[in-house]
Amino acid sequence: MLKPFLVFSAVILFEIAALTPTSTLAAGGTPQEPASTNPVRPTAASQEKAKKMYAMDCAICHGDNGDGKTDLAKDMSLTLLDWTDPKSLGGKSDQELFNQIRKGKDKMPPEDASRAKDAEVWNLVIYIRGMSKNQPAAPAAPAAPAAPVAPAAPAAPAAPVAPAAPVAPTN
86-125: buried (b, 16+ CB within 10 Å) or exposed (e) per residue? Predict the structure, then answer.
């Protein structure tokens, strides 16, 4: 009777241990895969740090405002996304952005773990996404002009109605 209870308890403990978040570094010091969704909640201080990190490491190519239109990008023949456009990052998950920052992409160098902790990179993802906030959405394509409608003819005035003649009662 006690044995099934102990087995059940062990299974529950293993489940809880599997669900408990761990550090991004394993005991041996090797990096683990980061969380699939952004695990950090931004604070004013973390976003200020992300802004400084962006200014030091990213703005030279991506621009101070994130539009990707810099002299260095032109000189390197790079076509970068305009992060001020709300649609530019719409198809990318936070995990994809994290991986591109951490591992690099094409000519973009990786952000080494010794320079930025995972939480700082996650905050940088939030900062980059924020570049398109409060930006006007791109105007929709103008609709085709409607066919002109001819003005309606003025209505003829109604003829006055004559009062009905009184009817005499019949017996």
Answer: bebbeeeebbebbbbbbeeeeeeeebeeeebebebbbbbb
How far is the CA of 68 from the CAs of 82, 107, 121, 134, in angstroms? 5, 14, 19, 18
| Distance from C-alpha of 110 to C-alpha of 90, rounded to nearest angstrom | 22
Q: Can you list the alpha helix ranges (DSSP code H) found in 20-69?
A: 44-57, 59-62
- Which residue(s) pair with 105 in the sheet? 108
CA atoms within 13 A on the CB side of 124: 24
108 phi, psi to nearest 5 deg: -80, 125
Residue 133 phi/psi, 5° resolution?
-70, 150
Angle between helices 118-130 and 94-103 (to 10 degrees): 120
Tens of pLDDT, residue by residue over 124-154, are 999 999 998 865 555 544 444 555 555 555 5
- The percent of residues above 70 in pLDDT, for the chain, comes to 57
CA angle centred on 15, ends 12 and 19, rounded to 5°: 140
- Tokens 């160098």 locate to 109
As a whole number of angstroms, the distance between CA 145 and CA 139 comes to 17
Q: Residues 18-52: pLDDT tens digits?
A: 444 443 444 444 444 545 688 999 999 999 999 99
Q: How far apart are CA 23 and CA 32, in angstroms?
A: 8
